[in-house]
């Protein structure tokens, strides 16, 4: 690995934290009793706290790390509605039935519209732009998959997705590696760390108490129907309890941990190359992805001066310097014109997948939850957190269709995904069999 790809001042932390670093842990004393306790200070937990507060219920939000420290402030900042469902499950209709899938798709599309309204209503400063999303077909066989996804997305009656033939791919991204693609109009981008900071501010305005650096160590029902929660800062009694720890769910919540597959996702930020060169590589300034099993996702920075690139650089716990070099090689292989561009930041964060590759919310033994964004978390977790809060309040006019999904696990699975390296190898083999090859990186002197 050559050091030439690393710009002076290279750091192994999220680029997003330059503008919006996580806050320091709380030091104030915590209450002994609360109306609602939310474990997990990311997008889902904070969105739930906002909805509870708007309806007169002041929540306490705790997190083992700083508020927003996890994937909520580390992700790529790309967002879409029901399009994310078609991404993870190409067999939705076969698995769940056409009528139910229509409900899921309609709710997914509505979630995107609700998200935009939510950002405006709460005045969230997060660099949100409705940019559209392009998904490149990595192989000829992927074109049919994309066409089915387009049909599924448009079945909600919105005509928001359309096919891009190979001869027009260059209008979207400066590569000859894709055989066509899909464009989603209902998609956009934001600054994830600014978004989670703005959510935290809105939650506090609506009466929530936010406490980072507080670990939940266990919980149990009490005689009054509420919960006794043991934390690193003492015991808290809560009438209502929500767990929203997603890819960072620990042993204190074993039922939930057994249903989540934490997967590290990696990202890099290039040095500033100027808007003109960014537009040359990404002419439409959208958010981008592809159809590979070992997928890429990428976008311009909010100021259009850098390119941010992410993907599954490793299926083991790799250090972010090594993963940064791998992602740089992937980026240059996709867009060769960027061969001389160095990177300034490399980082990773855990996303959580469910075994059925679907988002989940609901209630287990009185504990409410919102989990499993499956790699598409900004809109999904905002929506699920808000929906869980409505359920906690008991006033939801129409319960979420996602609440009817069983939350599956596998025999003997305890939350440690020992099988991921084997999954990674199978994914790489699938991509190679489809014809995808990545040229070896030529180290600079």
From TrEMBL:
Q: Please report the stretch or stretches of sequence annotated as the FAD dependent oxidoreductase domain.
A: 36-390
Q: What is the lineage of its organism?
A: Bacteria, Pseudomonadati, Pseudomonadota, Alphaproteobacteria, Acetobacterales
Whose protein is this, by species? Roseomonas populi
Please give the SUPFAM superfamilies that the UniProt record associates with this protein: FAD/NAD(P)-binding domain
Q: Does the keyword Oxidoreductase apply?
A: yes
Arranged from A to Z, the UniProt key words for this protein are:
Oxidoreductase
Pfam families referenced in this protein's UniProt entry, alphabetically = DAO
What name appears for this protein in its UniProt entry?
Answer: FAD-binding oxidoreductase
Taxonomic superkingdom: Bacteria
Q: Does the UniProt entry include the keyword Oxidoreductase?
A: yes
């Amino acid at each position: 690995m050559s050091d030439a790809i690393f710009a002076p001042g290279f750091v192994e932390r999220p680029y997003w934290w330059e503008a919006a670093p996580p806050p320091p842990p709380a030091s104030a004393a915590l209450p002994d009793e609360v109306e609602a306790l939310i474990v997990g200070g990311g997008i889902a937990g904070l969105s739930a706290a906002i909805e509870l507060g708007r309806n007169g219920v002041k929540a306490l939000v705790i997190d083992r790390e700083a508020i927003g420290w996890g994937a909520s402030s580390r992700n790529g900042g790309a967002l879409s509605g029901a399009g994310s469902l078609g991404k993870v499950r190409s067999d939705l209709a076969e698995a769940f039935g056409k009528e139910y899938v229509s409900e899921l798709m309609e709710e997914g599309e509505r979630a995107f519209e609700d998200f935009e309204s939510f950002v405006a209503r709460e005045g969230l400063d997060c660099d949100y732009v409705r940019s559209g999303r392009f998904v490149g077909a990595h192989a000829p066989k992927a074109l049919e998959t994309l066409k089915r996804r387009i049909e599924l997305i448009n079945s909600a009656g919105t005509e928001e997705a359309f096919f891009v033939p190979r001869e027009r791919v260059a209008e979207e991204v400066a590569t000859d590696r894709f055989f066509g693609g899909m464009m989603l109009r209902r998609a956009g981008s934001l600054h994830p760390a600014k978004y989670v900071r703005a959510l935290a501010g809105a939650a506090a305005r609506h009466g929530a108490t936010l406490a980072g650096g507080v670990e939940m160590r266990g919980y149990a029902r009490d005689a009054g129907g509420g919960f006794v929660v043991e934390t690193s800062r003492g015991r808290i009694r809560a009438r209502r309890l929500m767990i929203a720890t997603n890819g960072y769910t620990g042993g204190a919540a074993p039922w939930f941990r057994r249903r989540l597959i934490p997967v590290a996702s990696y990202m890099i930020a290039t040095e500033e190359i100027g808007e003109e060169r960014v537009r040359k590589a990404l002419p439409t300034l959208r958010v981008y992805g592809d159809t590979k099993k070992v997928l890429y996702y990428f976008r311009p920075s909010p100021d259009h001066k850098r390119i941010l690139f992410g993907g599954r650089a490793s299926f083991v716990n790799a250090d972010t310097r090594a993963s940064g070099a791998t992602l740089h090689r992937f980026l240059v292989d996709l867009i060769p014109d960027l061969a001389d561009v160095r990177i300034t930041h490399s980082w990773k964060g855990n996303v959580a997948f469910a075994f059925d590759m679907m988002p989940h919310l609901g209630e287990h033994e009185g504990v409410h939850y919102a989990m499993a964004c499956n790699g598409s978390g900004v809109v999904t977790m905002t929506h699920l957190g808000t929906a869980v809060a409505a359920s906690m309040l008991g006033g939801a006019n129409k319960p979420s269709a996602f609440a009817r999904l069983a939350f599956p696990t596998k025999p003997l699975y305890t939350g440690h995904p020992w099988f991921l390296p084997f999954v990674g190898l199978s994914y790489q083999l699938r991509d190679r069999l489809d014809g995808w090859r990545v040229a070896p990186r030529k180290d600079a002197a």
